Every structure is written in structure tokens, then in C-alpha cells.
Amino acid sequence: MKLEFGGKVALIVGGARGIGFAGAKELCEAGAKVAIADIDGKAASTAAEKLTATGAQSIGIQVDISSLESVKSMVAKAEKELGAPDIVVITAAIVDDKLFVESGPEDWKRMIDICLYGPLNVLHVVLPGMIEREYGRIVCLATDSARVGQARLSYYAAAKAGVIALVKSVAQEVGRNGITLNVISPGATNTELRQTREAAMQEQIGQEKYEARVQKVLRMYPLRRIGEPEDHASMIAFLTSDRASWITGQVISVNGGFVMP
Length: 261
Ligand SMILES: NC(=O)c1ccc[n+]([C@@H]2O[C@H](COP(=O)([O-])OP(=O)(O)OC[C@H]3O[C@@H](n4cnc5c(N)ncnc54)[C@H](O)[C@@H]3O)[C@@H](O)[C@H]2O)c1
Prior knowledge:
The chain has helices spanning 18-29, 41-52, 68-81, 105-133, 144-148, 154-174, 192-205, 207-219, 229-239; strands at residues 9-13, 33-38, 58-62, 87-90, 136-141, 179-186, 251-254. The longest helix is centred in the middle third of the chain and has 29 residues, at 105-133. The protein has 2 domains: 9-189 and 228-254, NAD(P)-binding Rossmann-like Domain (Rossmann fold), CATH 3.40.50; 191-226, no CATH class. Strands 3-2-1-4-5-6-7 form a 7-stranded parallel beta sheet, with helices on both faces. The protein is an alpha/beta fold. 50% of the residues lie in helices and 15% in strands. Helix 3 runs parallel beside helix 4 (105-133) and helix 7 crosses helix 8. The site of nicotinamide-adenine-dinucleotide has 27 residues, from helix 1 and helix 7. Nicotinamide-adenine-dinucleotide (NAD) binds next to helix 1 and helix 7.
């Protein structure tokens, strides 16, 4: 199945690295013009340069997804330089590895500001234009921990569960305007987000215990490997293509079979 994005404008929020960048690359290769927005503006520009070096049209934009004003200027810049976004993918997130009883209001606030207010801000800014143009493809990244729970990830999981509910509800409101919204729910995937958490774990429990843990985790995955960003990029491309025009409000786990909710 060949997916075509010729002439389409995509905005990847949190796209400087990891799953977002893999998605940006996939969309560019299929002909989309891609704005890469990230809190790390320099990394966003470097990521965009990598794509333009392949002949694609791409720009980097600095944004803090937790600020509505910053999100407004991100969308204005993308529109001015590439055109109004037809496709928006929200991957920006942070993760905290903490027992709930050891966490506090400052941890929860930071998490909810980025992982729940972030998508609220982006959807609120991009939807009016999409409604007017009668077209939009939106994908938000959640996590399987929001679907089945996960120790040490309680408030991250809670924020992401909010994103799932948001996407399902808004999908019901704007389907009549030719807009689809879906969620990709990843299992463990080999990106900096995971690598940082794993490095801290290794430091905490020591090499021998850590290696045993790695094997235990792999046994939890029927496909016996953790994910790569490209595993999600194919799903991002499919869900944002016109081949997925009758799919909305869905949560699709891309997770090697880790859970089957
Ligand atoms: N990697 C995994 O194992 C895994 C598992 C489940 C879910 N996810 C989800 O997938 C998505 C992508 O994760 P990833 O692994 O590629 O992460 P990553 O950390 O590699 O990339 C996330 C990007 O978001 C950016 N970002 C962070 N805070 C931001 C902010 N306030 N404003 C704008 N950008 C910001 C970071 O700079 C980074 O470039 C996230 O939503 C994450 O929750 C990842």
C-alpha cells in the first residue's frame, strides 16, 4: 500500500527526536512538507535540516507545548512558512519514574502541564482552521500504561488517560468536519525517553540485576523485542493518510503484543 502526502502540511509536535522524528521522516519521504516543533529549538532545526538534506521541505520551530501562547506562535509560524497544517501529530512528553507516594503536587503539575495541557493547547489552536477547511488528521501519542496501569508511572499514565478521553470526545465533535483524531499507544520503545529511564534503573539496581530485568521485560513481549521509533512511524503515516479516512476516535497499541487491551 503506497501512502501519498504530496502537498500536505504536517506539524509534528515533539518531533526533534524519537518517535516524532521517525514519523516526520516517514511523512517527508511520502511527500509531505513537515514542521518539526520541539522545546529544544536547536534540535528541532537540526532535525529539519536532516530532512531538507534529502530534498524534502521542512522547518524547525521552538515550542513549549504547555504554554498556549507558545503553541499559538508555533502554529502561526508553521502556517506562514509551509501552509496551514493538514496533519498534526503530538508526541511531546516527559516521563517520571517514581512511586506515587513519593511524588508530590509539583511533579503532578509539571506532568499534567506537558502531557495533558499540551495536547489540549494544540488541539484548541489547530481545530478551528481544520473545521473551516473541512479537513484534518490528528494523532496523539499515549501509552499502554494509560490503558492498563503501571507502577511508578501513575501520574504520567493518568495524564495520558486524559489524552485518550480527550481524543475520543473531540473525535465525536469534529467527525462531521472531515477531521479524524486517533491515539497510538506505544509499548516500550527504544528512544531517549526510555534510555534515560533505563540508565537510571541500571545505576540504581546494578548491572547483574539490570540484565536479568532486561530478559524479564523481553519475555513480556510476545514478539520478543522492544519497539523502535520506526514501528510507530508506519502507524503515524497510515492514520494520517487518506487510507484511514474512516478511522476515528480509536486507540491503537503498537506494542509487540505486550498487552492486548
Ligand atoms: N519510548 C517509549 O518507550 C514510550 C512508551 C510509551 C509511550 N511513549 C510516548 O510516545 C511519545 C514519544 O516518545 P519518545 O519516546 O519519542 O520520547 P522522546 O523523549 O525521545 O521525545 C519526546 C520529545 O518531546 C520533546 N518535549 C518534551 N517536553 C516538551 C514540551 N514541553 N514542549 C515541546 N516539546 C517537548 C522533547 O524535547 C523530545 O524531543 C510520547 O508521548 C511518549 O509519552 C513512549
